[in-house]
Design a protein that fits this description.
Largest sheet: none
Shape: rod-shaped
Structural class: mainly alpha
Distance between the termini: 125 Å
Order of helices and strands: HH
Helix content: over 70%
Number of helices: 2
Oligomer: single chain
Radius of gyration: 41 Å
Strand content: under 5%
């Protein structure tokens, strides 16, 4: 009894086996590429939707900013105006009450 097994194939049989193996590999490769492409399409679609949502939020923020926030320069101008009015009021009150301190 010989424990080694020998497989004898003709050239035609060997080419057939190789052809089938290459066909299976090609089919599996195409299947893998199709799955990756479908996954990429889903990811791009989700990214596109989130981009549109982000654009809407930024547009809403741009519209609401002038209504809710004051620019630094405007606040300084407003504060200076109030300070000068308070200084004038203080001077008037001091002149009417004898100008103490």
């Amino acid at each position: 009894m010989d424990s080694s097994t020998a497989i004898n194939l003709t050239v035609g049989e060997l080419l057939s086996v190789l052809g089938v193996a290459l066909g299976v590999l090609f089919f599996m490769g195409r299947l893998l590429v199709a799955q990756v492409a479908a996954s990429l399409r889903l990811q791009i679609s989700a990214l596109s939707e989130s981009t549109v949502k982000l654009e809407r939020e930024v547009e809403l923020l741009n519209r609401s900013l002038p209504l809710e926030y004051v620019r630094r320069e405007d606040w300084i101008r407003f504060s200076s105006s109030i300070d000068s009015k308070l200084d004038r009021l203080h001077a008037i009150l001091m002149s009417k009450h004898g100008g103490g301190e």
